[in-house]
Amino acid sequence: MIAHIPRLYVPVITPFAADLSVDTARFVAICRRILEDGADGLAVFGTTSEANSLSTAERMSALDALVDAGIDPARLIPGTGCCALPDTVLLTRHATRIGCKGVLMLPPFYYKPLSDDAVFASYAAVIDAVPDMGLYLYHIPQMSGVALSIPMIGRLTDAFPGTVRGLKDSSGKWDNTAEVIAAFPQIETFSASESLLPSNVAAGGAGCISASANVNVSGIMRLIRALGTQEEATALAQVSAVRAACEGLPLIPGIKAIVALRMNDPGYARTRPPLLPLTPDQKVAAERAVALCPPKENAA
Amino acid sequence: MIAHIPRLYVPVITPFAADLSVDTARFVAICRRILEDGADGLAVFGTTSEANSLSTAERMSALDALVDAGIDPARLIPGTGCCALPDTVLLTRHATRIGCKGVLMLPPFYYKPLSDDAVFASYAAVIDAVPDMGLYLYHIPQMSGVALSIPMIGRLTDAFPGTVRGLKDSSGKWDNTAEVIAAFPQIETFSASESLLPSNVAAGGAGCISASANVNVSGIMRLIRALGTQEEATALAQVSAVRAACEGLPLIPGIKAIVALRMNDPGYARTRPPLLPLTPDQKVAAERAVALCPPKENAA
């Protein structure tokens, strides 16, 4: 088993301008802020990023903007998995060409249920088209409707051993994550929730790719440093409180609202349909949640 | 209540070349064949068409090819609903500009569950961008994960009375279709299955948009002509037998295989991942299914 240094990747929100176009300036600003706060890297264009609410052109343009702004592509694992194979190939080829560490790839998520053969064939087709990519599998069956089974993952790691580099388990089911880590020690397995970091790291996992990291990088990095020390329980309690506050709201609009409050810029709060902005009552709850986040990050 | 003349629209399969690019020549050929066989129109780029496995550029190019080949756009209701609002707007604007009768629009289908407010806002945003479209709502919750509720449909028909023209109910739940027809007599409500045509038409519905129509246009048109006559039971038995044969296979690869046999051209059978071609055993079943289809259509 490879010993991993626990890492935090952040599925950064995608800010929108008043006309709901991608707000590249705010996107660059929040990405820089998250890296300055200590995150290891950015898993842009995940579920929290409203990635599937963006066109492929918007995704490539926003990714280019990050690199043009001086962010090291080796710290980027953009999401590239779409319903349509040519879209997934386009985004994966682009991310690979500009030097991204890897891509975090949903399976095609319109047709369901899909057999293991179908999921394997879908990933294999993208790998055939972009053989030099670094592939991180994205397991989020409650949203995609398509689970990545242990046997299917095993077929992929057997067939493409240098290509399959990791997996993000957003199922929330720790037993599944533990099974993936045990079965595939050669890949980096991330949990979605920082609350699972102690279990993830103790089992040999790679760390977390957490939505609530958008508002709590320094808290999660403190937890990572505290793992196995007397500080662990306190650090875990802080990140769990922030996460619970986020999960008490509609998750993505809630996180965007908290980012807006922390950045002191309401422009960060905008969402694209189908996601809706918070109600007035929910905004009050978001204001309370801000108080749980580390003060260090509050100072812009 | 408006009396509708029952109509058949066909969600035409999308043929692929050996390299899995869209095979425009075969697409034009099968669309022409279906219209020659008597269908009222083509609901291209539906679920059966693997529409969500195509890029937006592929969808627009293939639609243009139909019109360039002389097919009347007034007989076309292409699917245009994507996860990303700009993609849906792009496809809807294109279809509207070239004169399509309307568009059959999925709700955005990545995030789930979605509230009625979220679904309403998603459709309203597209209508705001393309106010001159003709909107047919596409209810297929088992695939999209997003149901179109009666209250949500009511809000849309109230807010956009000239724009919302119809609905396709692919839920397979007749009670839901009956409720939609009763609540919204001013729109055209289609069933997905031709087996429900007698119920649909008796209740005031508009007809069907059926996957198995890809291989049984003349049988379904015969049923439509036979409704209320002594021939109805015989015609219904024939279409139900064909439908059952299709449903006994993986539906979309099965229909493509049957089309290939009927067109005497194996090129029609190719699918794009995540859909897989039939197994040898399934191919034998597809050959048996061809015998159930009307001989008239067998003569190319």
The rough form of chain A would be described as globular
Mean pLDDT of chain A: 95
**Shape-level CATH architecture of chain A:** Alpha-Beta Barrel
Report strand % of chain A: 5-15%
Seen as an oligomer or otherwise, the chain set is homodimer
CATH uppermost class of chain A: Alpha Beta
- Number of domain units of chain A: 1
Number of strands of chain A: 7
Give helix and strand order of chain A, one letter per element, not per position: EHEHHEHEHHEHEHEHHHHH
How is the main sheet of chain A built? 7 strands, parallel
The low-confidence runs of chain A, each spanning 5 or more residues with pLDDT under 50, are: none
Widest beta sheet: strand line-up of chain A: 2-1-7-6-5-4-3
CATH homologous group name of chain A: Aldolase class I
User: What is the share of helical residues of chain A?
Assistant: 40-55%
Largest interface: A-B, 38 and 38 residues
Please work out how many helical segments of chain A DSSP would assign: 13
Gyration radius of chain A, in Å: 18 Å
Strand pairing plus helix content of chain A: what structural class?
A: alpha/beta
CATH topological fold name of chain A: TIM Barrel
Instruction: Report the end-to-end length of chain A measured between terminal Cα atoms.
Output: 41 Å
